[in-house]
Amino acid sequence: MRTIGHWARGSALALVMALTATAPVLAQASAPAVERVQNGNLVTENVPAIDAALGERLSAYLNARSAGFLDWTPDGKGILISTRFGETAQLHLVSGPMMARQQLTFAAEPITRASFRPARDSSDLVYVWDKGGSENFQFFHMDMSTGVSTLITDGKSRNQGLVWNHKGDRFAFSSTRRDGRNTDVYVAGLKDAATAAPLVAQTGSYGAVAFSQDDGKLLVGQYLAITKSYLSVVDVATGAITRIKPERDDIALGGIGFTPDGRGVFLTSDEEGEFKRLGLHDLASGQTRWITADDPWDVEEAALSHDGRRLAYVLNEGGWSTLRVIDTKSLKPVKLPTLPKGVIGGVSFSPDGKRLALSLTRPTAPADVYVVDLARGAVEPWTRSEVGGLNTDNFADAELIQFPTFDQVDGTPRQIPSFLYKPTNGPAKLPVIILAHGGPEGQSRPTFSSTVQFWANELGAAVLLPNIRGSDGYGKTYLGLDNGFKREDSIKDIGALIDWIATRPDLDKDRVVIAGGSYGGYVTLAAMTHYNDRLAGGANTVGISNFITFLEATADYRRDLRRPEYGDERDPEMRAFLQRISPLTNVDKITKPMLVIQGYNDPRVPVGEAEQMVAAIRRNGGDVAYVLAMDEGHGFRKKSNQFVAQMAQAQFFQRVFGQK
Questions:
Q1: Residue 171 lies in a domain
Q2: DSSP labels for 23-44?
Q3: Percent of the chain, pLDDT > 70?
Q4: What is the H or E stretch that residue 336 is in?
Q5: CB distance 469 to 496 below 8 Å
Q6: Residue 14: pLDDT over 60
Q7: Is the pLDDT of residue 513 over 50?
Q8: What is the pLDDT of residue 25?
Q9: Number of folded domains in the chain?
Q10: What residues have CB less than 8 Å from 593, skipping those under 6 apart?
C-alpha cells in the first residue's frame, strides 16, 4: 500500500546585496514614507544592508540538508527520497545503503511527496507539487523509462492524499475539484484522474486512507477538527458508505488500514482516555480491541505491510519517537534493534514486508533514512546528509524543561513543556529567543533545525521552544485548553515563560525576543501586545493579525476547519471577542521593534494579515521591517528566499539584543 501525503550560498548572498541597488517606491500613503526595495520576487522595507560575514555563516547553515523517505522502488531494491542540492527539494533515487543520490526531478518548486505504482515491473511514478506556495497541489506522472512527466490532474483544484490500490491499476485521492470548498474522494487511473467522478462527494473534508486486500473497499476519513474526526468504509463499486463507530461524534478517529481478511480495521482513537490509542476494530461486531492501552502517549503514525501481516507504529513520548512493530494476527511485538533517539517519520514496509524504512532526525543531526531488517534485527543508515561543512560537535542539543504557568492541575501549578537549546560556547548570561510553533495544534519536537542552530551558535542566544496549551501530544484536554473564548490563556503561558526566564541566572531577562510562524506568528503579535514592556522585540512570519479578517479571507476549503479551534466569527458574541483580542485591535500597545515576513501567495494566512499589521504599526510611529516574497506561500521554501528572511531575522535580533 503506497500513499502520498496525509490528510546556493553565493547566489543567495549576491541576490541580497543587489536589493540595495534597486529603485525604491513608497509604501502605503497613510503611513510614514518608507523605502520599499524590490528585486525580482523579493520586496523588503526597512531591512538593513547585509552583514557579509554573518551572511557567509548563515549560508553554511542553509547548506545543511536532509533526506525524507518517500517510497520503496517497486522491486524493493532502492528507495525514493526528497532532498535538496540546489534551490529546492527534489526527488532522488538511492539504490543501496550510502550510495549516491540520483536526481529525478528538476522543478523550480519543491517536490516532497511521491509514490511508485506498486507493481514489480512498474516504471510509473506519481509526484505532487504546487506553484509559488499556492497549495493547489497537482499530480504528475513520470514514466521512469523515458523520464517524461505529464500533468494528470486538472491543473486548478487542490489534490492530495494519493493511495494506490493493491493491484496497482488505480488510486484514490482527495480533491476540491467539485466546488473549491469541499474535499471529495476520487478513485481513478493514471489516464482519467482529471475527469473521474467522485466516489465520495459530501459536505466537508474527506480523505482516502487504504484499500482492502481485494480492492473492493476503501477506508475513508472525514476531518472536522483535531479532536473530532470520523472513519467510514466505502464500497468502491457502489459508493455505499458505512460509518465506523457512528454512535460516537465526540472522538478523533484515525485510519490505518484493513486486516488481511477485510473483516477488521486498524485505527487510532482517543475515546478511551486522553491519548490516541491503537486498536483493532471488528467491522461486524463493532467492538475494538486496544493494542496500546497501557501507553500514556499518542500513536502518531502507523503503516501496514503490503500483505497486511505486520504493522509498524510510532509513539510520541513527550516529543521523542518510539518505534514498534507487531504481527497483525497475534498482535505480538516483533523484536527491533535499537534506533538512535530522535523523531521518526515516513514509516514504510518494503514490498516484501521484510524491511522497514523510516526518516529519523535528532536535535544535532538532520533527517536521514534508516532501514530496519526485521529478520536480522539490524538497522542500517541509507543516507548521510551534509551539514554545510559545520562541526556538529558544536551544535546545541535539546534539553526538555518544564515551567509553571498561571493555573493549576490537582492543586499544583500546571507545567508547560519546552525544549531549550543553549550554545556550547555562549556568554555567561544569554539573550533569549522564544520560538512559538504553528498549528495551533502543532508541537515543538527535538528535531534538527539549521535556524535554531544558527541562532544558538552564531548569535550566542538560548532558544526556547515552548509547547503552550493547545499543543498536540499531551492529551486531548491539554489540546482544548485554548479553544474559543480561552484563546488568550495560551498567551498567558508565554507570560509565565518570561517569568521563568527571569529566574534563570544563565538567561538575560532584559534581552528576550519572541518569534514564530503561522499560529506562532499570532502568538508573537499577541505576546507583544501583552508583554511589550518585557520583550525586546518580535519577529512574525505569516501570522494572524486579526481573527475576523483571517477567517473571512482564508481559503474556502479551510474556513470550516478553523472555526472549531478559533471560534465562529459569524456568531455576534464570538465575533466581538475575536475582534477584541486580535493583535491589530491592540497594536497601539506595541512600542518595541517588529519584523514581519510574509509570502504573497499564502492561502492559509493571506497577505492582507501582514500588510494591515505593518501599516498599523507605522501609523503609530512604530519601528517595523517587512520582507515579502511574491513567489512563496505559507512559509519560505526556496533557499534564496530563506536566506533573505533569515538574514533579516538575524540582524533584527542582533539589533534588539544590542549586539550591533
A1: no
A2: PEEE--TTSPP-EEEEETTEEE
A3: 95
A4: none
A5: no
A6: no
A7: yes
A8: 36
A9: 1
A10: 536, 537, 623, 624, 625, 652, 655, 656
The DSSP 8-state label assigned to residue 533 in this structure reads G
DSSP 214: T
| CATH assignment at residue 29 | 3.40.50.1820
CA distance 419 to 430: 16
Mean pLDDT of 455-460: 96
Q: Give dist(CA 544, CA 558) in Å, integer.
A: 14
Domain of residue 432 covers 10-48+391-544+583-657
Domain contains 131: no
What's the confidence (pLDDT) of residue 26? 36
Q: What share of the chain is helix, strand, coil (3-state, %, to 5)?
A: 20, 35, 45
pLDDT digit string (tens) for 221-272? 999 988 899 999 999 999 999 999 999 989 999 999 999 999 999 999 999 9
- pLDDT, tens digit, for every residue of 310-353? 999 999 999 999 999 999 999 999 999 999 999 999 999 999 99
Residue 550 lies in a domain: no
163 vs 208: CA distance, rounded Å: 7
Place of cell 499564502: 602
For the full predicted model, state whether its pTM sits above 0.85.
yes
Cβ burial of 411 (10 Å; 0-12, 13-18, 19+) is exposed
For residues 583 and 553, is the Cβ–Cβ distance under 8 A? no
Q: Which residue has the cell 533545525?
A: 449
How far are the Cα atoms of 223, 349, 421, 658 from residue 510, in angstroms, in the given order? Answer: 44, 51, 19, 11
Cβ within 8 Å of residue 653, ≥6 positions away: 431, 433, 455, 459, 461, 513, 537, 539, 659
Is residue 591 in a domain? Answer: yes
- The mean pLDDT value for 631-650 works out to 94
Q: What is the pLDDT of residue 558?
A: 85
Task: Give residue 238's Cα distance to chain centre.
Answer: 35
Of the candidates 635, 367, 406, which has an alpha carbon nearest to the alpha carbon of residue 516? Answer: 635
Across the chain, mean pLDDT equals 92
